[in-house]
């Protein structure tokens, strides 16, 4: 957009007398005031267009910047996740936006994996976002562990929550490294996460007691995740073997599964379409599925094998 300022200049060529000269002086003075006013308007308008497009420089906008954290999968079609609700408000200003973030709380959400529709959403857990551990211990139960208070909460999906109270910690402690809660049979959970001085911890729900053990049990060696299914312990982990396939690929990676009865199987990367043969990656148990290299596998508990699902 261009702006032109037209200035009307009046020349008086005949002077009859001093009063006439006075008239010319008043005319010129008025013209100078008008010129200054027009220039000020033009400059202001030009600045408005070039910097903000003439919209209000005090416009306020809101954006949902919430994030989600996967908890696990329930059955064949439901996904459970934590929603941390955040709203960012920005006020447009000439020298840059002034933004602030409001935390609006944390909720547990159950959605349909295929249709992406929400099936159930819990009441707000906390007014602000919290950094607790959440995990499925079966298809309908989420356990929340508040590490700062050594306290557990039990969420029955579709219903509500129960405060299980404070749990006393005995033995060595891995509390700062706990990242997962797994069913361990006989009313117990296993806390997955270790330190240099402590290998793992077992939670006795009935006694409200957590016991830390210095060394990993033999069954858990080489495992990235462990759980109990109908009284049998299972373990998954990443493995590799020497297999020179090219100058750049000096070994073959894969995912293994085994149980405490001695049965197991390995899924090698050359059996998976579209992945690097030596992509060495963590294997995660997510209740209904095991996740590896972006793929989801069911566990055939009778044969102890991975079954590709999607």
Unreliable sequence segments: 1-28
Distance between the termini: 56 Å
Rough outline: globular
User: How many beta-strand runs?
Assistant: 22
Subunit arrangement of the protein: single chain
In DSSP terms, counting alpha (H) and pi (I) runs of 4 or more, how many helices?
Answer: 1
Q: What is the ordering of alpha helices and beta strands?
A: HEEEEEEEEEEEEEEEEEEEEEE
Largest sheet entry:
5 strands, antiparallel
Helicity level, as a percent range?
10-25%
Mean pLDDT: 82
What would you note in describing this structure?
- With 310 residues, the protein is mainly beta.
- Among the domains are: 1-54, no CATH class; 217-310, no CATH class.
- The chain is 11% helix and 45% strand.
- It has one helix and 22 strands.
- Strands 1, 2, 3, 4 and 5 form a five-stranded antiparallel β-sheet that branches. Strands 10-14-13-12-11 form a five-stranded mixed β-sheet, with no helix packed on it.
- A hairpin with a 2-residue loop joins strand 20 and strand 21 (295-300).
- Residues 1-28 have low confidence and may be disordered.
């Amino acid at each position: 957009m261009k702006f032109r300022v037209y200035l009307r200049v009046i020349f008086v060529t005949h002077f009859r007398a001093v009063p006439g000269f006075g008239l010319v002086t008043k005319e010129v003075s008025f013209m100078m005031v008008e010129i200054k006013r027009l220039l000020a308007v033009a400059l202001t308008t030009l600045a408005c267009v070039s910097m903000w497009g003439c919209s209000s420089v005090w416009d306020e906008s809101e954006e949902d910047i919430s994030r989600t954290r996967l908890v696990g999968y329930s059955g064949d079609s439901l996904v459970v996740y934590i929603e941390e609700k955040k709203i960012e408000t920005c006020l447009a200003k000439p020298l840059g936006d002034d933004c602030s973030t409001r935390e609006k709380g944390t909720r547990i959400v159950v959605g349909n994996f295929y249709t992406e529709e929400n099936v159930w959403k819990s009441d707000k857990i906390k007014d602000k976002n919290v950094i607790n551990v959440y995990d499925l211990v079966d298809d309908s139960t989420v356990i929340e562990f508040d590490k700062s208070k050594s306290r557990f909460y039990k969420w029955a999906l579709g219903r509500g929550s129960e405060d299980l109270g404070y749990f006393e910690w005995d033995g060595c402690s891995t509390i700062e490294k706990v990242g997962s809660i797994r069913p361990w049979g006989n009313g117990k959970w296993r806390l997955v996460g270790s330190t240099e001085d402590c290998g793992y911890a077992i939670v006795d729900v009935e006694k409200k007691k957590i016991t830390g053990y210095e060394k990993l049990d033999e069954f858990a060696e080489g495992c990235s995740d462990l759980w109990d299914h109908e009284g049998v312990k299972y373990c998954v982990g990443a493995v590799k073997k020497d297999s020179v396939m090219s100058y750049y690929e000096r070994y073959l990676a894969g995912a293994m599964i085994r149980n405490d009865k001695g049965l197991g199987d390995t899924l090698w990367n050359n059996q998976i379409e579209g992945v690097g043969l030596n992509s060495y990656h963590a294997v995660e148990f997510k209740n209904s599925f095991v996740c590896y290299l972006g793929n989801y596998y069911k566990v055939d508990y009778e044969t102890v094998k991975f079954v590709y699902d999607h």
